[in-house]
Design goal:
Length: 206
């Protein structure tokens, strides 16, 4: 009969439909929570944010690198009034590379720039982007720059950039770590290239 046929069909496909329904429910909850499910959290940036009112470091606290402070004064001025530069047709550098031996004050100088400009300060080590799963680093980079744009004026400080800024040549390892470094670095460069002239976000990397 028709009833028995329907019962057989439900019994045959019931478990499959149940599993599909569970996956759909999980996906909807993750999307409804703004990607805050387990997988969404895995791709979130681990950067530490310091709000402008909590930064007490200024150029007065940095000594011995006067030339570097003079160069970064333009960055401070740009973060304070980006519209003035755009009206004049000027384009500020999207990023600044701070190079020096450990302990020479690169992180202190980056915080001083944020303090002088009253800008939000996002700090992260480049190694924190890297995971064995390829694509997680790029996802964390996108999330970091999204947060920085929302908090503009802002400074994104990436410490130990050489952890991902190595040679792009060579075969990938079994875990895919090389591919992950390349994708992460490419995503950082892509995000920086997409800065608008009036967007008050600057990347400082050490």
């Amino acid at each position: 009969s028709t009833t028995s046929l329907l019962s057989e069909i439900l019994l045959g496909f019931g478990p499959t439909l149940l599993i599909v329904g569970i996956f759909v429910l999980i996906a909807r909850r993750a999307a409804g929570g703004g990607g805050m499910g387990a997988l969404g959290q895995f791709g979130r940036s681990k950067a530490r944010r310091v709000d402008p009112e909590k930064i007490r470091v200024t150029f007065a606290d940095v000594a011995g690198i006067d030339e570097a402070k003079m160069e970064l004064t333009e960055i401070v001025d740009f973060l304070k009034s980006p519209d003035r530069y755009s009206r004049l047709g000027g384009r500020m550098p999207h990023g600044v590379l701070l190079s020096g031996a450990p302990g020479t004050g690169k992180t202190l100088l980056a915080r001083a720039v944020a303090g002088e400009a009253h800008a939000a300060f996002f700090s992260i080590s480049a190694s924190e982007f890297i995971e064995a799963i390829v694509g997680v680093g790029a996802s964390r980079v996108r999330d970091l720059f999204t947060q920085a744009r929302a908090a503009a004026p802002a400074i994104v400080f990436i410490d130990e950039l050489d952890a991902i800024g190595r040679s792009r040549q060579g075969s990938a390892s079994v875990t895919g770590a090389n591919d992950e470094r390349e994708q992460t670095l490419d995503q950082i460069l892509t995000e920086m290239d997409g800065f608008e002239p009036s967007e008050a976000v600057v990347v400082l990397a050490a």
